[in-house]
Amino acid sequence: MTQGARGESIIQGDGAEYRVLFTNRALAEAESACGKSVIAIAQGFTNGATGIGDVAQMLAVGLEAARKDARTVGRAYTIGDAYRIMDEVGFTVATRAVMESVAAVLKFGSEAEAPGTAGEGEDPKGK
Asked: Pick from 45, 15, 40: which is nearest to 30 by CA?
């Protein structure tokens, strides 16, 4: 059974484990929080336009999406929590968890065949 367009990562902290989840809905929330598209954020890693603040916003959204998905009671994750976790595990670890999860959502379905195309070795008319 497929889980659909979702990407999950686990960040191992000092005695704690932080789950990060992105879905299309979470990506839209992250875009709103960052004020730019997820594609622009991803491209920003190569041209220097993506900074710590963007990663923190994305991390906060991913943490909160995971909390909601698990139906965990308690307070919502905040940007302050994201910065605390980034301080605990480092920018690189946090960024990797966020971007790997985002990439899983963005590439979901890309392996599927385009409608109306036959698979390798198949007759396009199904014969």
From this structure: 40
* pTM, to two decimals: 0.81
Please state the three-class secondary structure of the chain as a single string.
CCCCCEEEEEEECCCCEEEEEEEHHHHHHHHHHHCCCHHHHHHHHHHCCCCHHHHHHHHHHHHHHHHHHCCCCCCCCCHHHHHHHHHHHCHHHHHHHHHHHHHHHHCCCCCCCCCCCCCCCCCCCCC
* Cα–Cα distance for residue pair 60/73, rounded to 1 Å: 17
Categorize the per-residue pLDDT at 70 as very low, low, confident or very high, splitting at 50, 70 and 90. Answer: very high
Please state whether beta strands 17-23 and 6-12 pair in parallel, antiparallel, or not at all (unpaired): antiparallel
The token duo for 120 is 């390798």
pLDDT computed for residue 112 by the predictor: 57
